[in-house]
Amino acid sequence: MYKIPTGFPEGFLWGGATAANQLEGGYNEDGKGLSTSDMMTAGTHTVARRITPELLENENYPSHEAVDFYHRYAEDIALFGEMGFKVFRLSIAWSRIFPNGDDAEPNEEGLKFYDRIFAELKKHNIEPLVTISHYEAPFGLTQKYNGWSDRRLVDFYVNYCETLFKRYKGVVKYWLTFNEINILTMPMGTFLAGAMLPEGGLELTNPNASTEQARYQALHHQFVASAKAVKLGHSIDPDFKIGCMIAYLCSYPLTSNPVDVLLAQQKDNLSNFLCGDVQVRGEYPGFAKRYFAEKGIDLHIEEGDEQILREGTVDYYTFSYYSSVCVSADPEQEKIGGNMSMGLKNPYLKASAWEWQIDPQGLRWALNNIYNRYRIPMMVVENGLGAVDEVQPDGSIHDDYRIEYLREHIKTMKEAVIDGVDLIGYTPWGCIDLVSAGTGEMKKRYGFIHVDKDNEGKGTLNRSRKDSFYWYKQVIASNGETLEERGE
Prior knowledge:
By secondary structure, the chain is an alpha/beta fold.
């Protein structure tokens, strides 16, 4: 008889995930330069965020203060420790280390800030999981080189990585090269990925932000940069584990019509597996080459790039999962939102207030679908429910809806482990309330920890524990076995 797992493995990495531009604040302190995220105004669910070519007066730029982790990191990490975190996913702000991106020397004060972060995490026995580039780059690189459209960014990025790898050798084990790198396959990915800024700025949802040619060329440069970083990191410390991070866009055929089934597969390939194949297998897949040919996309691939991609494959695969959508050849079907994408409404699913369909079973599907293709260790490094939380008169926050969402997703993760998936960690998104990347709002909250701040930037920034805080503490303590109880 085969011996199958009965639950999460011993040593499973439970924790939470954040990003510097949505968390830190301190946007101009201690030598930090402006990042692309620092140029993004606030928006709402119905009003798109704008990206300005210069800072404007009387505009709200949410990343400038964010939730002030820059000054409150010790308090926040202590709360993570109280929950029992084994791992904390954070990103490093590139412009805090190299203010302009192409500086000759790093900013020592920026490096010292992360020295303090990692020391605080070690105090609480929390492993750092570091995203090297998470939806931001030094704005100087956008101004001077038009971002990732320019091949020279590869060397600037690798130099940045070398600085981090040497500084934090023996301190950080787990690294991710780019957050949701596949977002560049979509029009809205242009500026989120620090790629290119059309003259005069743009709205985040502008579908004409750049051509496919420009986006896929920028993506190729990021592939080369990632592969070089992986190889460099392994040469500096063979114990480094360096992974990719994909926004998994789960798409089902709306009907059993073979055309719908094929469309779902094609979307899965282009949205998810193009980037996975390059970063895990080390080469562009055939379906991508066909797509480029049919769309007239002619990538400039330098001699030696293919070898670089082969030699710089990742050690593990991580991804975000929030929701699923349907696809159909029928243009009259009702559309609904999702993480960086639009799709068709699934009649079997409920949706969040932001129209993201809630589909725990889709996470089990995604884990099996990915693992059966790549057969390397995996982490779910983003997952969660953005919702409006109501603070009660006594200060309590009863977020049963968040507990239910996470509980059902953890259940399906456990089923995937029993299926044979090598799952090694789980870091729900926004373990502390953050500024929303998509809308710039504060009211779209994900955290176990409430931050007193509103959409206009007003509030004390005081931290408080939600009901989900105590619930997740029990989940971690039981290694995913205690899911129903909540209590303090």
